[in-house]
Design brief:
single chain; alpha/beta; Rossmann fold; eight-stranded mixed β-sheet; three-stranded antiparallel β-sheet; 12 helices
Length: about 290
Amino acid sequence: MTIHAERVEIDLPERGVQLSVLDWGGDGPPLLLSHATGFCAALWEPVALELRGNFRVIGFDARGHGDASKPEHEGAYAWNEFVDDLRALVAELRARWQLPSFAYGIGHSFGGTVILAAAASDPHLLGRIALVDPVIMPIAAADIERLRASTNNNMAEIARKRRSLWPSRDVARESWSKKPPFQSWRPASLEIYLEHAMRSRDDDQAELKCSGEIEARVYEGIHGILPFEVAEKLTIPGLLIRAAEGSFPLEVYQQLVELAADLSLTELAGDHLLPMVNPDGLSALLNAFGDR
């Protein structure tokens, strides 16, 4: 499925990666979109089209995802690495395209946690942030080494078992459309995933651009960010959007909001993958908060 954005490859030599950027254009100050683990920037398309009336909307494929480079060294997918990538990308885009300050950063799931940590590390990076059902685990610093040494990571185990290679996109579509999480998606979002999160191989098979192994390594790198310590450092306005049918406890989000200076909490109908299941409702919330 064709998306309404221009793709540009951005080299970040100091970070050792190349990130793939989607520029949806639009009127107003720049806005940055950060996607969830295993996905890609293109899946923001339905939301991006609704935001570009007020902002210049820019998204990017994070390292290991979509068309971004896929480093292999140990620690490459620790979550603090994604935070540093995001900060370097904002600086590079502002310099290259002569952009004003980014007025808004929006992140979904893992991308929301990365946006939170990046904004807390530099109060001038983004004007405000919205976190769409972010991954928030109540981890204390004292527990980090124990958790890193643990081999019990259910999400990583599931990811490593994920099928990455399909005879064709048609076969993948037939399979995915009948089961979670895809069966609750808008049809257009599934078509975007099939087109932009998969690549065609020389043997005509279709393969996920973010392999199960990379996705697993991202899940294993979660301890690179301590969200509750990060939230205490956040000084800019923020909105946390909880998926009403998601799996993150309301109490955990409430605790996070209480730690931040100006972070509010609301709920939206839908499961964890809100940009794909309820893009209209999500866009309305994001535009309203951007106008505040």
